[in-house]
Amino acid sequence: MELTRRGFLKTAGAGVAAGMAFGLTSKSPALAAETDRQWKLEGTDEYTNICCYCAGGCGSVCSVRDGELINVEGDPDHPINLGGLCPKGASMFQLRNVVDPETHEVIKNPARVTKPMVRRPGASDWEEISWDQAVSEIARHIKDTRDETFCETSEDAKKFFEDHGYKYGDAETDEDGNPLTVNIAPGLCSLGGSQENSEEEYLILKMVRALGTPAIDNQARV
Ligand code: SF4
User: How far is CA 88 from CA 54, 59, 75, 135, in A?
Assistant: First the structure.
């Protein structure tokens, strides 16, 4: 018998339909898949947490087994994100663990930085330092810079900016022509990060204003 293309499709379609009809009407038992594999979240304890990446404050659920992080996902009970996470938040697990590209095993992220590091002027390598050393070096830099650049009056500020190549115009004066008290440290600036929440930013703002920093900005992107 010669089978045309149209005839072949008709015959095949009828065969599939008959098979489906049999499958839907027969009483064959449904078989659950049996597996020895442990489900990923089996035996884990769940800890709710807040995403570390931006001030959005999305909630997450961290699943932990035997002290080891197994999974991080959005918290469906959290009022802000209702279980969703943006791509950055969804990759939070990789802060701690990554998949080894060769063995495909989950391993500790070898690129994770767990200690303060500093690259000294002129050096090409980063040096690990303690938290105490980091805090004390940062404090020293801030204090020295403030002392070196502090301007008490508008005349001082005019001199500072003009010495650094900026046009300033006339120094502001009071009604009697005396320079104004400004008390600024233009050698310092503050750049906030979107990781900080409103309360942290409030305290940072208080601190940098007390230091006399006139240049304050914030990056608020995810
Ligand atoms: S980074 Fe994304 S998941 Fe994390 S808090 Fe911000 S918006 Fe939410």
Answer: 9, 13, 15, 28
